[in-house]
Amino acid sequence: MAKTLELHFTNGLGKTSKLTIDNPKEPVNKTAVKQVMDLVIAADIFGGENQSLVSVKEARLVEHNVTDYEIV
C-alpha cells in the first residue's frame, strides 16, 4: 500500500496547487509539515506571474490501493 503526503497551497490566482511527496516518514509531524510549507512559500520557486504560492491550504496523507488483474 503506497502512501503520499499531499501539500495543498493557494496560489496568487486563488486556485489550489499541490505538491506530492512519496513514502513520507510516519507518523507525520504536523508542525514540521507546516514549517516546510511556509518555507516553500517563502522561497517563491514555483509558479510564475500571479501563480506563486501565497498560503497554506491543507496537508493530507493519502493511501493508494492498487489491485492488478491478469488479463488472459
Account of the protein in words:
- This protein is an alpha+beta fold.
- The chain has one domain.
- Helix content is 19%, strand content 40%.
- Strands 2-1-3 form a three-stranded antiparallel beta sheet, with helices on one face.
- This is DUF2922 domain-containing protein.
- Pfam families: DUF2922.
- InterPro entries: DUF2922.
Features:
72 residues; alpha+beta; 19% helix
Radius of gyration: 15 Å
Figure out the total of helices: 1
- The total of beta strands comes to 3
The first-to-last residue Cα distance is 25 Å
Q: Helicity level, as a percent range?
A: 10-25%
Low-pLDDT sequence parts: none
Count of all domains: 1
Tell me the series of helices and strands, N- to C-terminal: EEHE
Strand fraction band? 35-45%
**Overall geometry:** flat
Mean of pLDDT: 94
Helix and strand composition category:
alpha+beta
Strand adjacency order, main sheet:
2-1-3
**Main pleated sheet:** 3 strands, antiparallel
Protein name: DUF2922 domain-containing protein
Pfam family, one: DUF2922
InterPro entries: DUF2922 (IPR021321)
